[in-house]
Amino acid sequence: MLLTITCTPPEDAAWPATDLGFLLHKNPDRVQAFEQSYGVAHVLYPQADAARCTAALVLEVDPIRLVRGRSRSTTDFSLGQYVNDRPYAASSLLSVALGAVFRTALHGRCDQRPELVRTALPLRIELPAVPCKGGPEAAERVFAPLGWTVAVTPLPLDPAFPEWGDSHYVRIELTGTLRLADALSHLYVLLPVLDGAKHYWVAADEVDKLIRASSGWLAEHPDRAWITRRYLARRHSLVRTALARLAEIDDTDPEQLDAVEDTADEFGKDSGTASPAAEQTTVEAGEPTASLAVLRREAVLAALREAGARRVLDLGCGDGALLRELLADTTFSEITGVDVSMRSLNIAKRRLRLDRLPERVAQRLSLRQGALTYTDARLRGYDAAVLMEVVEHVDPPRLGALEHAVFGSAAPGSVIVTTPNAEYNALYEGLETGAFRHSDHRFEWTRAEFAAWAHRVAEQHGYRIRFVPVGPEHPDAGSSSQMAVFTKATAETTDGATKGVAR
Ligand code: SAH
Helix 342-352 crosses helix 321-328 at what angle (to 10 degrees)? Predict the structure, then answer.
């Protein structure tokens, strides 16, 4: 079982490729062996010079040891414990080895080269044999959204008998410019996901492990539901917990995730071989709870309806969760989604099935790529604009430019802004003190900070404001999310005296 990681720095780089050894905490000049419960993990460098450095993790699995370490119940066929692919294919065992042997690198720590830890490096990862039960497309779909260029080659069942077709093993080559810790965390989480069978029983603490290991990328992954389900070996109660936690902390929405699950199943179907863990699963029905994301959208829609808005801008629309609801209500006659991220817009298109919508529905919607920190004359004249969980993604020095573009230039009748309430963060288990809910947040405001910002903006641009709590509320910390509804003073009142007054 083999994994290689190759780093080829750009020609003008001030560091040699062999610095990969520092990042991995494994000296390129040595061959090292690490005893594991199921065999031996070797780390060696087939090539290590200034221009190019390749680290290889070779796992020598001892099937007998693997069986001894196993709990009494196994559902494999009787010889399955001894005759299986574990010694040869990059399965969950490789992931476990990666977590053990490259633990410090996985956590992104390196005292000797701290700046390289934060640098996206040109990397190439090769996995010659990966069990991939969802077929080659599954590998493409899980890795590509993370910034990898993915080459997947199906391996024939037997090269001597091409008519037998392909096996469920593939060769995977990933190339991309990523931080090493991110690359390792992708492999750590996704190898067992592709395999679809864990060699150990999936216990409740796997949820913590998943959330920790995938922090910063899983919540935004278009196939996060499928990944979560497979990682947790379909233990429904755990899957639900994990999805809810991802949703709470990272602004995703379990409902949306369920929808993804349906389509994801097309490639995620198990090929009939149940994993030991899946066999032991008892389905525990969980009451679906309305997630913060759902409550937030409800609050925004209510404010839009109250304002009587028909032509609506969704600024920073992301992957289109609100657009979908706006489309479902025909009072919204013209809907424009704007986002700086082409990737998000493409996901929105796919989610909304834009190419399959009836003409009369599709023509109400337009999607536009653009930065909200620049004025755009096409955004003028709308009844309302929504900035849902967007301002906190903007660097504070650029916030003034966004205010000018939205409140000053586009100047819709109403502006609805939602943002996390930092005071509520202490109530989130698993969120470290002082940490933000999302890796891309540039700040998170307390209620007082949000109010101060909103009052200033309202005053400057002639809007009145009201504040609405959103989500669960705590007597001291307030609500989880906060919303301000700005209404253009001129549009609302004929009394010039109140113009520009924010209450
Ligand atoms: N409104 C969506 C997405 C919130 S995530 C929702 O609530 O589900 C924040 C979004 O804002 C991301 O999609 C990001 O790409 C976008 N964004 C951040 N800064 C932006 C900018 N300066 N211009 C346009 N979009 C921006």
Answer: 40
Residue 317 Cα to ligand 1 midpoint, Å, equals 6
Q: Which two tokens stand for residue 324?
A: 């979908």
| CA neighbours closer than 13 Å in the CB half-sphere of residue 273 | 14
Of the ranges 20-24, 85-89, 154-158, 409-413, which one carries the lowest mean pLDDT score? 85-89
Conformational region of residue 74, where left means phi above 0, alpha means psi within -120 to 50, and beta covers everything else:
beta
Atom of ligand 1 nearest to the CA of 314: 1
Q: Give the span between the Cα atoms of 452 and 41, in whole angstroms.
A: 56
The helix/strand/coil state of 165 is: coil
| DSSP 8-state class, residue 287 | -
Amino acid letter for position 406? V
Domains of the chain: 2-200 (3.30.1610.20), 211-286 (no CATH), 292-488 (3.40.50.150)
Q: Per residue in 179-236, pLDDT tens? A: 999 999 999 989 888 876 554 555 667 777 788 888 878 888 888 888 888 888 666 6
Q: How far is the CA of 29 from the centre of ligand 1 (A)?
A: 46
Question: 316 CB less than 6 Å from ligand 1?
Answer: yes
Q: What is the token pair recorded at 338? A: 């704007």
Q: Render pLDDT for 233-254 as a digit per residue (tens, 0 to 9).
A: 666 667 776 776 676 655 544 4
Cβ of residue 223 lying under 6 Å from some atom of ligand 1: no
* CA gap 254, 236 in Å, rounded: 13
The DSSP symbol for 431 reads P
Instruction: Please provide the distance, in angstroms rounded to a whole number, between the alpha carbons at the two ends of the chain.
Output: 66
Q: At 365, is the secondary structure helix, strand, or coil?
A: strand
Residues 28 and 144: beta-carbon distance below 8 Å: no
Nearest-CA neighbor of 94 among 126, 58, 46, 54?
58
Q: How large is the greatest C-alpha to C-alpha distance in the chain, in angstroms?
A: 87
Nearest residue to 313 (alpha-carbon basis) of 400, 229, 412: 412
